[in-house]
């Protein structure tokens, strides 16, 4: 598709929300740029996924650019590029060849299965670059996180457990394949 641009100021809303059974949904070649009022405002997601694809027809988010801006110079953004909720388990999602810059978190999945996160570039996050709180095994879902480049992640001062890491995976009963990722933490951080 054509390269598009979506701009706006959102407080706790989402630019795109994918609900229900949505096999084969594709979001590609879009530049998303969002300005938030201040970092204390409710998090907003550019793409919020509450539904899922199938093993044969995954949801695909590819070749997109996600840029977060703070309205006030020096404030952190409260934007998350791609977010899933805590209930049930959005499943069968591919995130490939996306660029994420200046976000609170890059990709933040609360409960998810069958996810491939590959060839993405994530930079300048105040908290996690990639976060998977727990896995949804019923989704037939291995978790693959490979060939991503994360730089200057977790710039926030003061670490919260599970909150300031390059890649974080919580409770997982799925097969986890984390390979060939490059992670450069912010200067004030020590762990990944």
What does this molecule look like?
With 192 residues, this protein is an all-beta fold. Helices cover 0% and strands 53% of the residues. It has strands spanning 4-9, 14-18, 26-28, 30-36, 44-49, 59-62, 65-70, 79-84, 91-96, 99-103, 105-118, 121-125, 130-135, 143-146, 149-153, 167-171, 176-179, 182-185. The strands form two sheets. Strands 2, 3, 5, 6, 8, 9, 11, 13, 14, 16 and 17 form an eleven-stranded parallel beta sheet that branches. The radius of gyration is 15 Å and the shape is globular. The model is unreliable at 1-11 (pLDDT under 50).
Features of this protein?
globular, mainly beta, seven-stranded parallel beta sheet, 192 residues
Low-confidence stretches: 1-11
Largest sheet: 11 strands, parallel
**How would you state the average pLDDT, rounded?**
84
Which percent band covers the strand fraction?
A: over 45%
End-to-end Cα distance: 36 Å
Query: What is the count of β-strands?
Result: 18
The number of helical segments is 0
**Radius of gyration using CA atoms only:** 15 Å
Shape descriptor reads globular
H-E string: EEEEEEEEEEEEEEEEEE
Fraction of residues in H or I helices: under 10%
Structural class: mainly beta
């Amino acid at each position: 598709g054509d390269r598009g641009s979506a701009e706006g100021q959102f407080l706790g809303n989402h630019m795109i929300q994918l609900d229900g059974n949505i096999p084969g949904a594709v979001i590609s070649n879009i530049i998303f740029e969002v300005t938030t009022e201040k970092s204390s405002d409710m998090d907003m997601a550019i793409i919020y996924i509450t539904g899922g694809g199938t093993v044969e027809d995954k949801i695909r988010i590819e070749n997109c650019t996600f840029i977060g801006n703070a309205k006030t110079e020096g404030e952190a953004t409260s934007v998350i590029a791609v977010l899933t909720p805590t209930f049930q388990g959005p499943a069968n999602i591919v995130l490939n060849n996306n660029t994420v810059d200046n976000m609170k978190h890059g990709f933040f999945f609360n409960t998810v299965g069958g996810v491939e996160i590959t060839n993405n570039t994530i930079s300048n996050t105040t908290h996690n670059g990639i976060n998977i709180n727990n896995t949804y095994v019923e989704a037939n879902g291995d978790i693959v996180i490979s060939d991503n480049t994360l730089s200057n992640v977790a710039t926030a001062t003061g670490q919260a457990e599970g909150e300031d890491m390059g890649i974080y995976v919580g409770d997982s009963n799925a097969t986890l394949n984390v390979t060939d990722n490059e992670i450069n933490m912010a200067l004030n951080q020590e762990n990944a």
